[in-house]
Structures are given as structure tokens and as C-alpha cells.
Design a protein that fits this description.
The protein has 9 helices and no strands. By secondary structure, it is mainly α. It is globular and about 55 Å long. The model is unreliable at 171-175 (pLDDT under 50).
Length: 248
């Protein structure tokens, strides 16, 4: 086996450790802190955490997400090692994947796209977008991505409020229909994809989100557990657009 393959394997494993760490601590503390047990909140020794050991206080093992992220990190790193994303080298594609993975995991688990994560995304998006498309197409793409998703966000809020009033219920909190973090992420995706590629990225996200939403509604109806305005994380669909357009 070529010794060079050790680089993407090791890089992918270490990157996955970082993704798991950020996904564990940022939703709880909004800052970089010592990792704690997700079950009993006991502080973990760094050696135990990095070796993926369970909690020494309550005895709970690490979650399945921890192991899934570690596996995905290695596989994804190997993939872009041999098939670099369009217009980028391995390391830039690697950094982009780390960012997208952090957003994906946190949004799926907590339905949150944190502002500090968005700030980092703007920097990453600008750098990658300018390399791929130049500054003008990058900024236009960011503006279009943000603008289109903001319009959908605003329309969703108005629709949800109207439906709540018709049903005699208290209006849902603003942003429940589509979180404003998704609007920020769409702007970041626009920076990454640039103009006009962002139009295809948004379209892919809308179509994928619509299909998944329809399947969820059908599933709830079949199980007789239908719930109006059931929220789903939207970041995975925006990330899907980036992956389809840059990593295939």
C-alpha cells in the first residue's frame, strides 16, 4: 500500500474528532470548553474523550453519532484525496467538508445554526468562492442565496402565523417555519457556489427538502401521528447542493 494514503486516513480521523468535539460543546456552551458527558454532564478527561471512551461517572458509552462521524471522516477524506472537488485541492476541499459536517451534525441534532459557526462559514465561503469564481460572482452568489432564502423564510413565517390564527392558536414563534440560521447558511452556500451555480444549489435544496417533507407527512399519516408544522432541519439540504455541485 502506498504510504501516502496514510495522510488522508489520519487527516480524516483527526478531522472527525474535531467535528465531534465542536458538535458536542458548541450547542451547549457556545464556546470552546472541556468536553462533558451528554448524559450526566460530568467533565471528561481529554485522553478519554480523544480515545472515544465512555463516561467514567455514569458509564454511558459514546453515541452512535460519534462513531458514524469518525467513519465518515475517513471515507470522505479518502474520496477527496483521489477525487478532489472541482477547482480545489485536497486541503481546501478538506476544510470545506469539516465546516459542512459541523453544520450538518449540529442542525440535525439541535436544529441550530449557530452565529459563530456562520461567521466562520462566511470566511471559508469567501476564500473558496473567490478561488473558484472570482470576487464578483462570489458576492453575487452570496447575495442571491441569502435573498432567496430570506424570502422563503419571510413567506413561511407569514403562512404559519395565518394558519395559527385560523385555528385559534397562538402564533408560532418567528423562525419556526424556517430558521434564520438557514438564511445565513444559504448566503454562505451562495459564496461557495457563486453565481449562477447558487441557483442550482438552491433548487436542489428545495426539491430535496420537499421530497423528504412529503415522505415524512405520508409516514405520519400512515402512523396516525400527523403534526402540523412539524419542523425538519434544512441545513442538510443546502449542504447537499454543495456536495452535488462540487464533490461529484
Amino acid at each position: 500500500m502506498n504510504i501516502s494514503i496514510v495522510v488522508p486516513i489520519l487527516s480524516g480521523w483527526l478531522a472527525a474528532l474535531l467535528v465531534n468535539y465542536l458538535s458536542d460543546v458548541l450547542p451547549a456552551t457556545r464556546k470552546l470548553t472541556n468536553p462533558t458527558c451528554q448524559h450526566c454532564a460530568a467533565k471528561k478527561a481529554w485522553t478519554d474523550y480523544l480515545l472515544l471512551k465512555g463516561c467514567t461517572v455514569c458509564g454511558k458509552a459514546r453515541s452512535w453519532r460519534t462513531w458514524l462521524v469518525q467513519l465518515f471522516g475517513v471515507v470522505a477524506s479518502l474520496y477527496i484525496w483521489f477525487v478532489p472537488p472541482k477547482g480545489l485541492n485536497y486541503w481546501l476541499g478538506f476544510i470545506l467538508l469539516i465546516y459542512l459536517a459541523v453544520v450538518f451534525v449540529i442542525d440535525v441534532e439541535h436544529r441550530l445554526i449557530l452565529h459563530p459557526v456562520s461567521y466562520v462559514g462566511i470566511v471559508v465561503g469567501l476564500i473558496i468562492g473567490i478561488i473558484l469564481h472570482g470576487i464578483q460572482a462570489t458576492l453575487i452568489g452570496g447575495a442571491v442565496g441569502f435573498g432567496v432564502m430570506y424570502l422563503l423564510y419571510f413567506m413561511g413565517v407569514l403562512f404559519a402565523r395565518r394558519m395559527a390564527r385560523r385555528q385559534g392558536e397562538t402564533a408560532i414563534e418567528e423562525g419556526d417555519a424556517l430558521g434564520f440560521g438557514d438564511v445565513n447558511l444559504a448566503g454562505i452556500v451562495g459564496l461557495i457556489l457563486g453565481w449562477p451555480l447558487i441557483s442550482f444549489g438552491i433548487l436542489a435544496a428545495i426539491l430535496a427538502g420537499g421530497v423528504v417533507s412529503l415522505l415524512l407527512i405520508l409516514g405520519m399519516l400512515l402512523l396516525k401521528r400527523y403534526q402540523a408544522f412539524a419542523a425538519i432541519p434544512y441545513a442538510p439540504f443546502l449542504i447537499l447542493g454543495v456536495v452535488l455541485l462540487l464533490f461529484r
